[in-house]
Amino acid sequence: MRTDSPISATLVAWGNAWLAGHTGLDEAVDRLERAAGPQLVAVPAAVAASTLLDPEPIAQLTDVPLRGFLAELRGEGLAGFRLALPAPGDPLGLTGPPAFTREAVAAGQAAIAVLAGRRVGLVPTADQRGSSYSGVRWVSMAAASADADVPQLAEAERALTLTMRSATEVLTGVHGPEQGFPSLDGAAEALAPGYPGRAHRLGALTARLALALRLAEERGLTSGQLAARAEALRELDRAVRRARVAAHHAIDELRTH
Questions:
Q1: Pairing, β 61-65 against β 39-44
Q2: Phi and psi at residue 194, in whole multiples of 5°?
Q3: 139, CA 20 to 30 Å: which among 41, 63, 171, 214?
Q4: 35-78 pLDDT, tens per residue?
């Protein structure tokens, strides 16, 4: 899955809104299912959730409904969710261990469930069974307990604004039939109830820009003859991912003030 299909961001936003009392578990999961279809979690077969941090790979997994999985974690002290939007060479939002980092980087995204003394990483994969079933299968993995170094909301907003200006100059300064960004009509909203207004605005902007980056790539803007545009898009992608993570973590900033 790609960051322009941000099911991990949706889980983090609505999961945090649920934990903060702004919505119910059923509504949160319904939002996820409306966004990407049925939601399942792959957990070790016949193993309690408290052993999910076993660093050794477990071959046999069993699928459980996301709703029940989250309810069980809540009973074990689930306190929040963190968002990771990594790219090769840029493990944004991740602190290990290596197995989880590899899977999250390959997927381009992950959610991290924060519990007392431990964390559970959730990596989304496409779940397609035949022609009529399409959903998400979250693979639960061990996640490191350390917090990742991610930007604060104001810092990420400033960096994104500067990068947007620079990228706009480059993207409109190269002559050719495929200049600028395509239309962004229909880009989805990003966050859930309980987040500060500034985070909602930044989250919506990053959702639109992530869509623009995907469409720009599909239109050939990263070809060899457009190397300047390719570099501008890489820098913008980096700033968008950081701003998106900051927006989705902003509910924690609100709690501390």
A1: antiparallel
A2: 100, -15
A3: 214
A4: 999 999 999 875 444 444 444 444 588 999 999 999 999 999 99
In this prediction, residue 220 has a pLDDT band, given cuts at 50, 70 and 90, of low
Contacts of 84 (CB under 8 A, 6+ apart): 8, 91, 92, 93, 94, 104, 109, 110, 111, 112, 148, 245
> What are the strands, taking DSSP E only, across 53-179?
61-65, 80-84, 110-115, 118-129, 133-143
- Rg value, the chain, Cα: 19
For 1, half-sphere exposure in the C-beta direction (CA atoms, 13 angstrom radius) is 28
- Its pTM stands at 0.79
Q: What is the pLDDT of residues 162-189, one digit of tens each?
A: 888 787 776 665 544 444 444 445 455 5
